């Protein structure tokens, strides 16, 4: 039962208090926790915590030595208790309508202040600083603004669209050979959830962060015509891209029984691609992780 060796460059001092990740039962939050443990195994000596709405779904984390605390973004007092003793809080953005999301994030920030958290790392969205914002981006901008005025050290980690979602988007189109999206001729940077979690974990463990905002992009931005051609090569099935209106795309999703909230989110994100809001590329990911994303 020997503990894995930890490289000195990764090591935290024994005076460091708990790092806590919110939403650790979610797809991104759970991966962030896994990469924190992989990078710093000694965190399992009582220095890594998570907050979740349903602790029963986090029993595997608890069995590994992660501190599991119950917290709901709609219950500020309980959140302040869950954040007690935390030095660095990884605030994973929530789902839901924009106004609801930003309100929940503000409650979490206020709870962190009440608990004495000294540094907040927030998972935002690429393009949250654009002039004209979609609803998802507007919620992130409001949260970034709340952080800027909260008086506590903070780091914003802006995520691009998830590469993992390509199969869900493309699979229905493969049957017809045509992928119809409201993305115009715009380009998009895609990174997987797992690699984004690597970068966020690296930021949470970094002894010093040189920037207030990191944009965790890939190093290339592709059009959906490019992506369709790559999917065709990998799958061995013909697939071409066709730009359509937001209305036509909404109608096709609704015809397949897609929930209205998801329809609205997909349309807003893909029309953002058409205006090149999600085409940014930079080296922030590599600066944190040590190499670019795949």
Helix percent band: 40-55%
Mean pLDDT: 90
Report how far apart the termini are: 34 Å
Helix and strand composition category? alpha/beta
Given as residue ranges, the uncertain stretches (5+ residues, pLDDT < 50) are: 1-16
**What value does the Rg take, in angstroms?**
20 Å
Report the count of strand segments. Answer: 13
Percent strand: 15-25%
Order of helices and strands: EHEHEHEHEHEEHEEEHEEHEHHH
Largest sheet: 7 strands, parallel
Q: How do the strands line up in the largest sheet? A: 3-2-1-4-5-6-11
Q: What's the tally of helices? A: 11
Shape: globular
Describe it:
This protein is an alpha/beta fold. It is built from eleven helices and 13 strands. It has helices at 27-39, 59-64, 76-82, 98-115, 135-148, 166-174, 193-205, 224-235, 246-255, 260-274, 284-289; strands at residues 18-22, 48-52, 67-70, 86-91, 119-125, 153-159, 161-162, 178-181, 187-188, 190-191, 213-215, 222-223, 240-243. The strands form four sheets. It has a seven-stranded parallel β-sheet with strand order 3-2-1-4-5-6-11, with helices on both faces. Strands 7-10 form a two-stranded parallel ribbon. A two-stranded parallel ribbon has the order 8-13. Helix 3 (76-82) packs across helix 4 (98-115). The longest helix is centred in the middle third of the chain and has 18 residues, at 98-115. The radius of gyration is 20 Å and the shape is globular. The model is unreliable at 1-16 (pLDDT under 50).
């Amino acid at each position: 039962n020997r503990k894995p060796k930890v490289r000195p460059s990764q090591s935290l001092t024994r005076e460091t208090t708990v790092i806590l990740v919110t939403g650790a039962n979610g797809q991104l939050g759970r991966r962030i926790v896994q990469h924190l443990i992989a990078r710093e195994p000694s965190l399992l000596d009582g220095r890594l915590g998570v907050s979740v709405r349903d602790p029963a779904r986090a029993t595997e984390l608890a069995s590994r030595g992660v501190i599991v605390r119950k917290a709901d973004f709609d219950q500020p007092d309980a959140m302040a208790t869950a954040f007690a003793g935390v030095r660095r809080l990884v605030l994973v953005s929530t789902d839901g309508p924009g106004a609801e999301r930003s309100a929940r994030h503000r409650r979490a920030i206020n709870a962190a202040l009440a608990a004495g958290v000294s540094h907040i790392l927030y998972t935002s969205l690429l393009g949250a600083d654009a002039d004209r914002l979609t609803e998802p981006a507007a919620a992130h901008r409001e949260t970034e603004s709340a952080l800027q005025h909260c008086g506590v050290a903070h780091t914003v980690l802006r995520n691009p669209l998830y590469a993992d979602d390509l199969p869900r988007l493309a699979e229905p189109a493969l049957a017809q050979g045509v992928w119809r999206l409201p993305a115009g001729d715009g380009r998009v940077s895609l990174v997987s959830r797992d690699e984004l979690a690597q970068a966020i974990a690296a930021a949470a463990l970094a002894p010093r962060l040189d920037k207030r905002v990191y944009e965790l992009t890939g190093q290339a931005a592709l059009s959906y015509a490019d992506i369709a051609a790559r999917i065709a090569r990998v799958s061995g099935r013909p697939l071409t891209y066709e730009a359509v209106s937001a209305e036509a795309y909404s109608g096709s999703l609704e015809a397949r029984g897609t929930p209205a909230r998801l329809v609205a989110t997909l349309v807003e994100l893909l029309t953002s691609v058409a205006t090149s809001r999600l085409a940014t590329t930079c080296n922030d990911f590599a600066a944190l992780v040590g190499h670019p994303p795949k």
